[in-house]
Amino acid sequence: MLKDKQQEQNRRAAALGKLLARPMQPQQKSTTVGLQSLGLDSERDALLYVPKSYQADKPAPLIVMLHGAGGDARGGLTPFLHQADDAGLILLAPASRLKTWDMLYGEYGADIAFINQALMQTFNRYAVDPAHIAVEGFSDGASYALSVGITNGDLFSHIIAFSPGFMAPQMQQGKPQIFISHGTWDNVLPIKRCSCKIVPQLQRADYDVVYQEFHGFHTVPTEIANSALKWFGK
């Protein structure tokens, strides 16, 4: 009975784009570092990267990394994977259930439930700093990061959106800090109809936004990724 009630609560939360997982004192402490699968799905799993410097008595910052359309968990890790050890970051990269994120098909649901499951497992095994939890994404993943990050601003302290197309939060919770970048030559999600509209909307809603344009196409240049990490680490 209690299990059915919990499942219904989780289903309703997922439909609203809400993540229920929260950092906790790990119950199943792990000392495993490096790249690992969470074993939540046989085909489209979530990947976790734990830095070599991780210590159970020192909660680490966490970034949830969301791939672009047609991508997967490994692709989602790309912007920050090589900097994770130096920055002491835990990276969590879920894969969308379909080719892109549920909200892009019209409603929240399965992907929120999967991300919540991945977060619960991560929080149960590793100590995470609740004041430094970000959601990051590129392209469709950036649109999803903005939408989910604003909806769950009581969980995420920071949002990093590389070349987003739009945002569709279900509600506003808290006031996460936001970093957005976009290429001026982007021919996939043109800057004029995307970030040039998104950034003023966020500023009018009183969000603290750092916005960086660069001369380039639909990509995440290394210098932009480094800039975002430096901003997150302040």
Question: What does this protein look like?
Answer:
InterPro entries: AB_hydrolase_fold, Esterase-like, Plant_Biomass_Hydrol_Est. Keywords: Hydrolase, Signal. The protein is α/β, with parallel strands linked by helices and 234 residues long. It has a single domain (2-22, 32-232), classed as Alpha/Beta hydrolase fold, catalytic domain (Rossmann fold), CATH 3.40.50. Helix content is 31%, strand content 21%. It is built from 7 helices and 8 strands; from the N terminus they run H-E-E-E-H-H-E-H-E-H-E-E-H-E-H. The chain has helices at 2-15, 73-77, 84-87, 110-125, 140-151, 195-204, 222-232; strands at 34-37, 47-50, 60-66, 90-93, 128-138, 158-162, 177-183, 209-214. It has an 8-stranded mixed beta sheet with strand order 1-2-4-3-5-6-7-8, sandwiched between helices. Helix 5 links the parallel strand 5 and strand 6 (158-162). Helix 1 packs across helix 4 (110-125). The radius of gyration is 17 Å and the shape is globular. The N and C termini lie far apart (46 Å). The mean pLDDT is 95.
Distance between the termini: 46 Å
**Oligomeric state of the chains?**
single chain
Element-by-element helix/strand order = HEEEHHEHEHEEHEH
Q: Give the averaged pLDDT, no decimals.
A: 95
Number of helices: 7
Note poorly predicted spans: none
Give a quick account of the main beta sheet: strands, pairing sense, barrel closure: 8 strands, mixed
CATH architecture: 3-Layer(aba) Sandwich
Strand content: 15-25%
Radius of gyration: 17 Å
Protein name: Phospholipase
GO molecular function: hydrolase activity
InterPro entries: AB_hydrolase_fold (IPR029058), Esterase-like (IPR000801), Plant_Biomass_Hydrol_Est (IPR050955)
Keywords: Hydrolase, Signal
